[in-house]
Design a protein that fits this description.
- The chain is mainly β.
- Helix content is 6%, strand content 48%.
- The protein has one domain.
- The strands form two sheets. Strands 1, 2, 3, 4, 5, 6, 8, 9, 11, 12, 13, 14 and 15 form a 13-stranded mixed β-sheet that branches. A two-stranded antiparallel ribbon has the order 7-10.
- A hairpin with a 2-residue loop joins strand 11 and strand 12.
- The longest helix is centred in the N-terminal third of the chain and has 9 residues.
- The radius of gyration is 17 Å and the shape is globular.
- The relative contact order is 0.23.
């Protein structure tokens, strides 16, 4: 996928905890109802006039569900996609991304990795204009870890939270819309988006074509898994 400069700049300018517990302050609470009528309090604060930082805790979207299954054993376990789902509810969008397994610890910022390069990523691309190619107006929701200039190689324990970014693709690359907390349970990421987050999120339908991805780069070798594997057959 095309390098998104604006998103990387936004990531670098705020403090994020990757695969760690994420707590945010709240500037204004908004009540969101899922399909069962339960109230989910959205906690968001403005990073700037066009970028939000939100904590949706462990919210789970309920609604119509699409299931996806990928071949197992064709990659490193933590980037080997296995089962994915997309849920479209009355007021929410949800994704689960499962990999073969997650280790208890991950090594970050390997010495061989170049500064500003992507280290880890799990996510989904939404083809809103249905042309089978990442284009202006599409959405990308990813859990990313880059190596910044001040970072040195380190090993962390896997915890129960991760930060996902929601990016609207554009002709210039893309613009981050929000950074949101998501949950990690064993080998499955759960991402929750209220439709009120952005007009593009509200346009996601159960029939919207999607492509899931997972990436690992240690500076010596790069590992990627996609489902579907060919972007021209996105479904």
């Amino acid at each position: 996928m095309k390098y998104i400069a604006n998103k990387k700049a936004a990531l670098k300018n705020i403090t994020l905890l990757f695969l760690g517990l994420v707590l945010f302050s709240c500037s204004e609470n908004t009540n969101l109802n899922n399909t069962n009528g339960n109230i989910i309090k959205s906690m968001c604060t403005n990073i700037n006039e066009s970028l939000l930082e939100c904590d949706f805790k462990d919210a789970v979207c309920e609604g119509s569900v699409r299931h996806f299954t990928d071949e197992v054993g064709d990659n490193k376990p933590f980037v080997d996609l296995t089962e994915m789902t997309m849920t479209v509810g009355e007021d929410c969008i949800g994704f689960t991304i499962s990999v073969d397994s997650m280790p208890e610890k991950l090594t970050l910022n390997q010495d061989a990795l170049k500064v500003n390069d992507l280290n880890y990523s799990w996510g989904v691309w939404l083809d809103l204009n249905e042309n089978s190619y990442p284009m202006d107006g599409d959405l990308r929701v990813t859990i990313d870890k880059y190596k910044w200039e001040e970072n040195s190689e380190t090993t962390i324990n896997i915890m129960s939270k991760a930060v996902a970014s929601v990016t609207e693709l554009s002709l210039s690359g893309g613009d981050a819309i929000a950074f949101i907390s998501s949950s990690l349970s064993e080998n499955t990421f759960n991402i929750y988006l209220p439709k009120s987050l952005h007009s593009k999120v509200a346009k996601i339908l159960i029939t919207t074509p999607v492509q899931f991805s997972a990436t690992f780069n240690d500076g010596k070798s790069s590992y990627r898994d996609y489902y579907p594997s060919d972007v021209t057959t996105i479904n």
